[in-house]
Amino acid sequence: TVLSGTPHLLVVRTPTPGLVWYAAISSRSSEAIDATGVLDGWHGYLTRDDYAGWYQYDPGLAGVQLCCAHLIRSLRAVLALAPGAQKWAGRLIDLLREAGALVVAARADGRTRLDQKTIDELRTRYDRDVRVGELANMSRPWKDDRNHPGLVLARRLAAKADQVWLFTTDLKIPWVNNPAEQAIRLPKRHQAVSGYWHTPTTLAAYLRVRSYLVTARDHGLRAIDAIRMTLAGKPWMPVPRLASPAPALAA
Fold this sequence. Notes:
The protein has 251 residues and is of the alpha/beta class. It has 2 domains: 8-63 and 177-250, no CATH class; 68-168, no CATH class. It is built from 9 helices and 5 strands. Strands 2-1-5-3-4 form a 5-stranded mixed sheet. The longest helix has 22 residues, at 87-108. The chain is globular. The chain starts with 7 loop residues before the first strand and ends with a strand.
């Protein structure tokens, strides 16, 4: 059996140093994601993109942080459509980056959240430019009489503002899911270069070994040492930390 590009790869990762878990799924459907069982009974925070397959978990989570790197890419794409008419998107890019820098500084100072006055000021500027984006694109024509991408994005940002700004109220929550995206890069590159996975069994074995080795590396253990310990019958295992509700990142 040859799997010719059919599997999709799923990664769930706790903030470094933490745990990294890889799985192959048959599609990106909600059902395929849920069948992995990786988030069953888990009620922490999740930093993710806005793909609809994740929505099923939202009611049971402590909170959702939308990945700001994904949002910035979406804003940049809208800005590129008409830089003169979509300046609101550029301002929001700057605003998100400004907020990220403020969080880094606050975390370095030992704080657990931004002060409420700063949060309110950021949200006021955000709400104003999101509204500008809605008004600027309300009647702007687009292909096949569909809504302009700027309008679609602005409405999404308005509806999910709390998920955009969660990271400012709890500094342990990452504002991007980049570590999960980085973790999936090499397996995706392998798939792109080879064009296929050999069998379900070899793919499952590859992802299981990679989950172990990447997690070990996150904890400062060299891959060769982790392999030696496993071959000696004493595989390295991370020490569980009781930090509930803990954050996680998904890609």
